[in-house]
Amino acid sequence: MTGIAWGRLSDRVGRKPAILCGILGMLSSVLVFGFSNSIAMAMISRSCIGFLNGNVGILRTVVAELVPERELQPQAFSLLPLTWSIGSIAGPIIGGFLSEPAKNYPSIFPQGSFFDRHPFALPNIFTAAILFMALVFGTLFLEETLVGHRHRYDPGREVGKKIEAFLSSIFTWFVSTEPACKHSPIPEDEETAPLASQSNNYSSTTKSSSPAAHHTHHPHAPLPWSQVLTRQSIYNIVLYFLIAIHVVSYDSILPVFFSTKPPNAKDPIRLPFHIPGGFGLSTAQIGLIYSVNAIITMLLQFLLYPPIARHYGSVKLLAVSAAVYPFIYFVTPYTLPIASQKWLYASWSVIILLKSITGVFAFTSSTILITNTASSIRVLGTLNGFATSTAAMGRAVGPSSFGWMFSLGQRSRGWTTIPWVGLTIVAVMMWVWIPKLVEGDGVDGESSSESSESSDDEGEEENGVEVIDGERARGIEFVETEREEGRLEEELEGECKKVKGRRRRLSMGSVGEQ
């Protein structure tokens, strides 16, 4: 419900403030959830976790702004699902070990103690500690990526730069016998960076320390919705919605199918449509299957997807996933009548592998395509927020609907395949939209869709020079850097001649210092 509002806010005040507010809101809500003593309190705190945190869409926006080059997007956008997969594996393990500590570790947490009265407080306190670390690191080291806000004064980042310089000077002292500059420690990345990059970094520092720097850039009002939702954006968001419905629904009813008792003589299998029951697997066996799936997905996400996406493009990979998903859903119930244990394991190995591949292809490709349909960098946060909210709606509607279908099918006398056929139909619906997709060039290039181009033209007529896209933003930053460089050199000339000598030698291509 609030993903759009958080995305809109990030387009106005910047990505970093919105991300930090989201982390703070989640930290507070997690603590309340851990100390909940009623269902109502638990539901309210869980709702606040979603209400006060829109970081999923904003983080995708940050990745898009950090890596505007289309050929690098597959690898960059693979990092977020990769970290999510790692957290999905580690989180349940940690939560399981820390839940109900008085019951599991009575020697450490005796009966009647604080954690006995609040059995689920400890894992949530641990989560809050992780979020607090994220809040501190974000305040100190996260750079603002929104154009027009990158050079605004950031006190947290200024402290972070001093910490970086201090740690770099210690590292330099350990690895080098050359004495450091008496007045200003030189971070290692500044010693080896190109001259233009150093000028940009120094000018940013000088501007941020000046009182006038607070008024150099003004936040622009977000663009109208006609520029947020272009034709290509709508196509991709609808596809993202469909993917969220059938993928999350399948993941929700599959464990139930695994754990349901096998068919018996009273209600036998009657092909082709009546396949009652399930495999009767234990919780440990189901957990093992999902752990293997998560590991395979994590490896495919980082190793397989980037090179394939660079070669074939995101649209083709999304089309491949749309072709494979209906097959997976349709054949799932028909693995139950397989009598041979050997063929049963072989069939499910193939299904799990295909499910992992299609999941990586579908979600990552869809995220990249949505990002590249943005008509301007100023609508990127709103667009990703809208896509996140739409997908969340699909994740809410899908499992409840198909879970009800699964129960209805099990109670029926001939149509137990209802949920699987329904998932197949939803997956096939993706083909209504896939032929309309085009590979966008992203916010730094020209849009490859006519609708995006027309939206850009209308936006420029309405907003004039206020419309700042990637190329124009880089030009503005370069001009500002040039203006500040003269004053910067005057301030540093008498204080750090050695630094200027290094910069001059680096600009001439020198590879060593005396």
Automatic annotation (TrEMBL):
* Origin superkingdom: Eukaryota
Region annotation Disordered: residue ranges?
184-219, 442-494
The subcellular location is: Membrane
- According to the entry, every stretch annotated as the Major facilitator superfamily (MFS) profile domain falls at 1-439
A GO-annotated cellular component: membrane
What is the topology of this protein in the membrane according to its UniProt annotation? Multi-pass membrane protein
For bias type Acidic residues, the affected ranges are: 453-464
Q: GO molecular function, one example? A: transmembrane transporter activity
Q: Which PROSITE patterns match?
A: MFS
| Biased segments, Low complexity type | 203-213
Q: Where is the composition biased (Basic and acidic residues)?
A: 469-486
| Protein name from the UniProt record | Major facilitator superfamily (MFS) profile domain-containing protein
Task: List the InterPro entries.
Answer: MFS, MFS_dom, MFS_trans_sf
Bilayer-crossing regions: 18-43, 119-142, 237-258, 278-305, 317-336, 348-370, 377-397, 417-434
Q: Which UniProt keywords apply?
A: Membrane, Transmembrane, Transmembrane helix, Transport
Tagged with keyword Membrane: yes
